[in-house]
Amino acid sequence: MAAIALNVRHAVFSPQSLSLKQLLPALPLAFGLTRSIGLSLQSLVDLLPPFLLAVPKSKTSHSRKAMRSANKGLKDKHNIVNCPACGSPKLAHHLCSSCYNFLSRRWKKESRDNTPDLS
Fold first, then answer.
1. Count of domains observed in the chain
2. Which residues contact 23 (CB under 8 A, 6 or more apart)?
3. Neighbours of 76 (CB within 10 A)
4. In terms of residue numbers, what domain contains 6?
5. Mean pLDDT, range 71-95, rounded to an integer
6. Average per-residue pLDDT for the chain
7. If you ran DSSP here, which 8-state letter would residue 111 be given?
8. What does each C-alpha distance from 22 to 4, 19, 96 come to in angstroms?
9. Which of 99, 102, 103, 117 is least enclosed, having the fewest CB within 10 Å?
């Protein structure tokens, strides 16, 4: 256990060198905490030093936020064609909404006419 604590103090680790299970018991010893304090910590936030937590250095200004989202605008549609049946614009490889509405009304009417009256 002490060997791992010495390695934590004096070495730089890559993610492949030690797993988190090996590193967590050694952190209280590595940062000068006694074993009894290390066992009484309630959460992982108390265990980790503050330099491991990600915090922005300064506020992101409105201008920077706007510049970051400037390229997220709407893109033009290049696959709009005219419906061969009614001539209204529609997306290629999709049903025309006006033709579909006409057909669905017709199918519903036919299904209502063909159902037997049970009363």
1. 2
2. 4, 8, 13
3. 5
4. 2-51
5. 91
6. 74
7. H
8. 8, 5, 61
9. 117
